[in-house]
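This part of the workshop introduces the protein records we will be handling. A record pairs a protein's sequence with a compact description of its fold. As an example, a complete record with its sequence and its structure tokens follows.

_____
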Amino acid sequence: MGVVLTWVFGIVIAILVARSIRGMLSRRRVPTLRANGATIVDVRTPDEFLKGHVEGSINAPLATLPAGLDRVDRGRPVIVCCASGVRSEAAVGLLRRAGFVDVVNGGSWRDLR
């Protein structure tokens, strides 16, 4: 039993490390994507968005993002942001499942200003 738990624990750690590395590498692409006209999608609530946001970004709250996909240009790279990066990570998965190819979690909107 101990060997199996150790094996499972090792796999979980490997998955978490891989996701962390993928996120760091993706975020390194943000300046280039922005310079090339990427669409910035802010998945915070409208109230949060009104308190501050990246100029030119689209507010598409995570809760309603599936219904608002037509507002996002599928032909351009997409940078998703929120307050901390948690909701934007969920939105990245949603967008990829909807057929968007070049989608990056930009983390906090404050880091994109």
